DNA sequence: CTGATTGCAAAAATTTTGCAAGCCT
DNA sequence: AGGCTTGCAAAATTTTTGCAATCAG
């Protein structure tokens, strides 16, 4: 995949060695549209490279985060999930059931230039999350209110 | 503080009992403009209510997250930090040094109505984070590049 | 009163670290 | 060859859970 090759380059340029364990993690990261936690990343990367150690995944994720390639987010209850940092991520998160809906349109881009001016900040990506209650959970809530009367 | 009273009400309305431990946590949450991790919340809440247990903080944070009062975010390396969920949060996060800059203006509000229409999602708050490199870290990077030539 | 809540201690889960062996470059 | 990387196992941290005692309503 082209995307993976670009990531490999970024690692290499930053002075890191390109090793099979790192390639396995990169493969997983670059393939997934989903959000994965470290444990899931380990599992999937192990199908590519059996014997891959958990510590290596953490160490690689740290590097990738440092380089701005991935980024941990919190969503719902569970622990951290890693997403590709490039570009933007846009989620609707239901605070009741934890469901995540992705959407594309985003007005954040408009702000990048202004923020760069004001704060002298070189922006490479963004995350926009809306929190609220999804339709299904609202129905449940209404049902419960009704019941409790 | 007025803010705290509102939170107390929301807890009460949701059917939770108002107890000293919960009040202590609410006090900390409502006072802080900062982002706090569970451990810091415990520490501060214990100055209000010595003997407060760590588990209670976690349990309370879970409730508050559920109610959409606070929300965990990941920023920089460390673990989760809790912020008030109400309204919006807007951060610039430096991926090099982890520095966080808050800013106010936000175009996200414009999207709320549209998203509600499209996904039937009742939006209560949002988080907008821009990731990049701050001025100081860029200077450092340039210096290092220069050195390595 | 009565069930929700608490603190504690133990258990789980998650993350980090030390280190000898192995692998990129 | 030399130093960065790795996997492992142990350590450290963070979070969850079981339970008897306590407390809010």
Overview of the structural elements:
- The structure is a homodimer of 149-residue chains.
- Chain A is of the alpha+beta class.
- Chain A has two domains: 1-85, Winged helix-like DNA-binding domain superfamily/Winged helix DNA-binding domain (Arc Repressor Mutant, subunit A, Orthogonal Bundle); 86-149, Dna Ligase, domain 1.
- Helices cover 48% and strands 22% of the residues of chain A.
- Chain A is built from six helices and five strands.
- Chain A has helices spanning 2-13, 20-31, 38-48, 54-66, 109-119, 135-147; strands at 70-74, 80-84, 87-94, 100-102, 122-133.
- The first copy, chain A, has a three-stranded mixed beta sheet with strand order 4-3-5.
- In chain A, β1 and β2 form a beta hairpin.
- In chain A, α1 crosses α2 and α2 (20-31) packs across α3 (38-48).
- The longest helix of chain A has 13 residues, at 54-66.
- The first copy, chain A, is flat and about 55 Å long.
- The first copy, chain A, starts with a helix and ends with a helix.
- The interface between A and B is large, with 46 and 46 residues.
- β5 of chain A pairs antiparallel with β5 (122-133) of chain B.
- The structure holds a DNA duplex (25 and 25 nucleotides).
List keywords for this structure.
Dna Ligase, domain 1, Arc Repressor Mutant, subunit A, three-stranded mixed beta sheet, 2 domains, DNA-binding, two-stranded antiparallel sheet, 22% strand, homodimer, flat, 149 residues, alpha+beta
Itemize the secondary structure elements and their pairings.
The structure is a homodimer of 149-residue chains.
Chain A lengths: L1 H12 L6 H12 L6 H11 L5 H13 L3 E5 L5 E5 L2 E8 L5 E3 L6 H11 L2 E12 L1 H13 L2
Parallel strand pairs in A: 3-5
Antiparallel strand pairs in A: 1-2, 3-4
Helix pairs in contact in A: 1-2, 2-3, 3-4
The first copy, chain A, binds a DNA duplex (25 and 25 nucleotides) through helix 2 and helix 4.
């Amino acid at each position: 995949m082209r995307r993976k090759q670009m990531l490999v380059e970024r690692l290499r340029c930053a002075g890191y060695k390109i090793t099979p364990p790192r390639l396995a993690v990169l493969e997983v990261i670059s393939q997934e549209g989903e959000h994965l936690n470290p444990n899931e990343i380990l599992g999937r990367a192990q199908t590519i490279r059996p014997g891959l150690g958990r510590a290596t995944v953490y160490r690689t994720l740290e590097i990738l985060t440092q380089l701005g390639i991935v980024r941990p987010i919190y969503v719902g209850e569970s622990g951290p999930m890693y997403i590709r940092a490039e570009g933007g991520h846009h989620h609707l998160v239901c605070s009741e059931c934890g469901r995540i809906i992705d959407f594309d349109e985003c007005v954040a881009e408009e702000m990048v230039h202004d923020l760069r001016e004001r704060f002298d900040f070189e922006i490479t990506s963004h995350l926009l999350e809306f929190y609220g209650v999804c339709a299904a959970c609202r129905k449940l809530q209404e049902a419960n209110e009704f019941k409790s009367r």
